[in-house]
Design goal:
2 domains, MetI-like fold
Length: 268
């Protein structure tokens, strides 16, 4: 009975989480002229066709993906380097740095967004240059993605044998080559996890982007502006495409990690 109850509870939790997404996917294929979200009128791909004909949505999507890719790449590099530096610190400085790293994650997003906006406006007034736009969005997204990468890489560094890096150098490997040949493969699962988290968080972000975007529109901001009138079923189609892409990316990463673990067990 306990097992059956646990399975039923798990099923209900997943149903609650994924039922809205399934409804969204189903109604992205709804053939209706009234943009109904409650009445099924038949199967059609017309909303996908209209999606790729809508210049404003595609421009917002392009901005969102560009920012997400740049933020994920930059925060992955910076976060990995920062995690290595934090891991090599002594106990007290490490605790201080971990508290500093955790603070942006527990800080309300609206506080982060307003503070970054004020910082960028002050920097523009002090040093000149353009107002809020793509540059401020890049900086803001890298800033809030960075802690997630650090916290993804640090556990892998702690699991790694600390003598491996020194052993590689003792055998004649230069420090930089030893890092790429020995350390990086060991922490790669954490690096990939952090990069995926940074990418998805950047795509999903609205509050911080809203305060730091200026006249640049990302997809969440564009969808928010649509809610003042009505949400077009084209958004259902776009959300389905994004969901499919992220799901495929997660499946590929999990399959690769599973193969790597099996290969490691066979070598052992």
């Amino acid at each position: 009975m306990k097992k059956a109850g646990g399975r039923l509870y798990t099923f209900l939790v997943f149903l609650f989480l994924y039922a809205p997404i399934l409804v969204l996917i189903v109604f992205s294929f709804n053939d209706t002229e009234t943009a109904s979200r409650t009445v099924w009128s038949g199967f059609s791909l017309k909303w996908y066709e209209k999606l790729f004909e809508d210049r404003l949505i595609l421009e917002a999507l392009r901005n969102t993906l560009l920012i997400a890719v740049v933020a994920a790449a930059a925060s992955t590099v910076l976060g990995t380097v920062a995690a290595i530096g934090i891991n090599s610190m002594k106990r007290l400085p490490r605790r201080v740095m971990m508290n500093i790293t955790n603070f942006p994650m527990v800080n309300p997003e609206i506080v982060t967004g307003v503070s970054l906006m004020l910082l960028f406006v002050f920097a523009v007034g002090l040093f000149g240059g353009r107002s809020l736009g793509m540059g401020s969005l890049f900086a803001a997204h890298i800033t809030f993605c960075l802690p997630y990468v650090i916290l993804s890489v640090l556990p892998k560094l702690r699991q790694m044998d600390p003598n491996l890096y020194e052993a590689a150098q003792d055998l004649g490997c230069p420090p930089v080559k030893a890092f790429f040949k020995v350390v990086l493969p060991e922490i790669m699962p954490g690096v990939v996890t952090g990069m995926i988290m940074a990418f998805t968080l950047s795509i999903d972000d609205f509050v911080i982007s809203y305060f730091t975007s200026g006249t640049t529109q990302t997809l969440p901001i564009y969808i928010y502006s649509m809610t003042r009138k009505r949400v077009s079923p084209e958004i259902n189609a776009l959300s389905t495409v994004l969901f499919a892409v992220v799901m495929a990316l997660l499946i590929v990463v999990n399959v690769r990690q599973g193969r790597a673990r099996r290969a490691g067990k066979e070598d052992a």
